[in-house]
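for the writeup, i need someone to sanity check this before i put it in the appendix. the sequnce is what the collaborator sent (i think, or maybe the updated version? ugh). structure was predicted straight from it, no edits. if anything looks off just tell me and ill rerun, i have time this weekend
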Amino acid sequence: MRRSTAVIFTLLVSFICRTLGETCAENCGKKLNSCSCHPTCGSLGSCCSDYKESCVNTSPYSGSILGGTDFVVLDAYFNKSSDIVCRFDNKTNTVGYVDEEGRGHCISPLLYETGWVSLQISSDNGTRFNRAGSWLSVHTGKLDSRFKAILVNSTKWQYYGTPNVGGNLQMTWNTTLVNAEKVNIELWGYRETGDPYSEYWQGEWLYLYSLAKDHPNNGSFSFFPKIAEDGFSIWELGALRVSSSSYPNGMWNVQAAWSEDHALAWHLEESFRQNSTGWALDKCLDWDQLENELPDFLAEIIDCPCTLAQARADTGRFH
């Protein structure tokens, strides 16, 4: 009898030692011995006591693929002295902060992919990432208009300089997206270099120049476009960024409002404005020649949707 009691006591102590102090910190997505850190634990009523604190949700839960979204970490509270570092997709770190109410904030970075990416949060300057969640990276064309800068009459922006298209251009934004009294309006460009489908093929996303500096953060900016100087007119695709004037020009991964990416017709060289049709024809001929030099990849890709409406509805595969 004594031996049986001792065995039961030993098993009980072993169980308590194994389960005592079980936490969701660094265990999100797992089912532990005495409780769960799996997303289903809420509906099953089996969550560990610190589930919401460690396996965090955010508001908003998504933002532009270009980054710059300031979002709040929900149901988790930090010391005012906490040094917040947010890690996206296990590779890109940004510096966050703690607000007056003790809530942690993260700034989303430039992400070269759309969809859900992992998010880890550290409160000790990156020594230990003990909180985890997810972040939804969205192409600017799919992003809610409340969370991006709007190009007023976007068709005019993309056809600027063609016959009968000119004058001032205007953009607007929600002033709460940039926590600053003064902002810079920056132009960023995208291009690809090297031989397509070779190991030297590279995509480049780069700050080009500022359209305005120390502009009041009043939610609106208009300007009369000029031909880009210093060779920047070779950049044909890009986006505008509204960010605090306190940051250096072109600083990466800071709080900002981005416009959609668009054809930069409004800053192209004089030859485009003099003869946009001829300029476009040359581009088409160059593209056709490049296509003829590329390998046949049609057999390797999924079928195209039959209509534009189908493509827009199928957000998982097309944008």
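The radius of gyration is 26 Å. The helical segments are 2-19, 41-44, 51-54, 154-158, 270-274, 276-293, 308-313.
thx in advance!!
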